[in-house]
Amino acid sequence: MVNAGDMNGSGNLMDFLDEPFPDVGTYEDFHTIDWLREKSRDTDRHRKITSKSKESIWEFIKSLLDAWSGWVVMLLIGLLAGTLAGVIDLAVDWMTDLKEGVCLSAFWYSHEQCCWTSNETTFDDRDKCPQWQKWSELLVSQSEGASAYILNYFLYIMWALCFAFLAVSLVRVFAPYACGSGIPEIKTILSGFIIRGYLGKWTLLIKTVTLVLVVSSGLSLGKEGPLVHVACCCGNFFSSLFSKYSKNEGKRREVLSAAAAAGVSVAFGAPIGGVLFSLEEVSYYFPLKTLWRSFFAALVAAFTLRSINPFGNSRLVLFYVEYHTPWYMAELFPFILLGVFGGLWGTLFIRCNIAWCRRRKTTRLGKYPVLEVIVITAITAIIAYPNPYTRRSTSELISELFNDCGALESSQLCDYINDPNMTRPVDDIPDRPAGPGVYTAMWQLALALVFKIVITIFTFGMKIPSGLFIPSMAVGAMAGRMVGIGVEQLAYHHHDWIIFRNWCRPGADCVTPGLYAMVGAAACLGGVTRMTVSLVVIMFELTGGLEYIVPLMAAAVTSKWVADAFGKEGIYEAHIHLNGYPFLDVKDEFTHRTLATDVMRPRRGEAALSVLTQDSMTVEDVETLIKETDYNGFPVVVSKDSERLIGFAQRRELILAIKNARQRQDGVVSNSIVYFTEDPPELPPNSPHPLKLRRILNLSPFTVTDHTPMETVVDIFRKLGLRQCLVTRSGRLLGIITKKDVLRHMAQMANQDPESIMFN
Prior knowledge:
The structure is a single chain. This protein has helices at 35-52, 57-98, 111-116, 135-140, 146-174, 183-190, 201-216, 224-239, 243-246, 249-268, 271-282, 288-308, 332-362, 369-384, 388-391, 394-402, 436-459, 469-493, 498-501, 513-529, 533-543, 549-566, 571-579, 596-599, 619-628, 651-664, 710-720, 739-749, and strands spanning 101-103, 132-134, 612-613, 617-618, 633-637, 645-650, 673-675, 691-692, 697-698, 703-705, 724-729, 732-738. It is mainly alpha-helical. Belongs to the chloride channel (TC 2.A.49) family.
């Protein structure tokens, strides 16, 4: 873009564009932003503020406010994201328990809170208190027996259906963009794509409300992914209050990157993991300044959540565990096996889920989203209720699977046969033979594992908010706990085997099954999302298991290797490609030996490239060209004969410029000459006023020669965030390559359908 001072008209000609007009520099929906232009505009703005700050005290104060506005936005995002996460956690806790019963002393109390306040709770029956009544006790005064079980079963299903129906109805009527995880779209938006309304106020409100409803309904989904979307909605709202961010799409995306970090921070209580997640998994452009601000936003969000204390344990997370036994080198083998399981599960899930989602998009199934949600909820509730491990919320299930068996645990998983002569400290209980409760729990966990694996495939992608982190972790935690109990019993009964002899003596506490659950959860989450560094950091922040980093790293790396052997795409990239978003992944490699001339438009046999000339077209000619084509912009050449390139004009800005000129500049009519040069062309005496549009002309469009390798062109598009690139030979225009052309070419080279790239 050229400075306004260089574009003065001559004589009585007015270059009305010296004054800014509404909507110039903005983008249409489902279009890609021009990163270079956004960066240039921000530099110009900053230069102007710096020069003005020396003129007066007031301007100096304004420059300070501008510099601090970024930190203020981060503070506001952290406060709102932390508050919303705390409210969601409390509401989910209450509504999940509402399916089973109600607190008589205060109906807004969850089961746990209700019995906290009771003076009649015993240690052995800490979950039972007279203030909390199941629906059967309340309605028919029976707590045991077939009729009570059937009534509770029926009401559990009814509440689940009610919550799910309300959620899908709210999403469908008020905010269609509130469905799904949100992370594939956030990744696409951060790469420079415009999806209007995706981060709007209605989406924020409806997603927050429906997230509580769907998690409470017992469906196999989590709230962690959608919380990233919620935090990004907060970021978009607060950035719109400051012109520095609202008028610059590139700067806005820096705020959204930091908001994503705050979202993970409150979802898992993992501020550092949130920053790394944003850097590794979500962000496209992540300068050092954004890293600091992400860190600050994640800190404020975590602090706010800690102040609310939704779990009542003075921790940021539900899964906090303390293990009393170190891990041993021999255990790396089962940890790596869990990594292999995680990679295989990730591959299976991605392939099956994408196949199901594609079927939903291409068949009549997609026309009945409400019915689909109701059917899946009914199936989930009917199968889940009889099994205690699927009946409870997934977060509570993971928490129980992670826990170490202490002397005070009353879980079935801790029903071991105790030695009556044991005189050990409470926190160092030796390995013991499994009791009947453990064997029952193993069968129930095996059934729950199969059920979770199958139902999650059909649940993720429905028209409701649905996160994938918690179901993936639950699958891994169940598999891990079963492997852990198996290794523990093997070590107890065969402590003389060579692999156990050196580190597991009789009467010692050797194996911690909860650690295997934690490693399995990390492996499965890594297999589905392909995260590595951020995953390990999130897991040790989530559980407090700092000394177990090596097992977590081994499982995460193994699961990624195994999953990558079957396909490089994680679940979020797979959904981006399924939806046809123009996302140029930094991780993709392009190794084919094609040239720019093979990809550019027009190809042989196609109509000539639509161009504007610098001083020989009328307003009517330009309007006709705009009307007859749907291109996002037009190269400007000296003349149709020479085709020497002058610059590039955006379609939207041409439309706005001509519309404003007709309203504000006298004498501009359909046969007025449009010129992009510094001085007006020589015209006959009675001709109408010409229209100067030099200011909207980009005089330095990015160009490559026709023999540039496509490997280089792809790198340029990826690293500079270009919308289009012009192809020239010796300064003469030959054609144009758009981001969509690059993506289609890459799809074609990978033997995929190039027409799957739907958006510009």
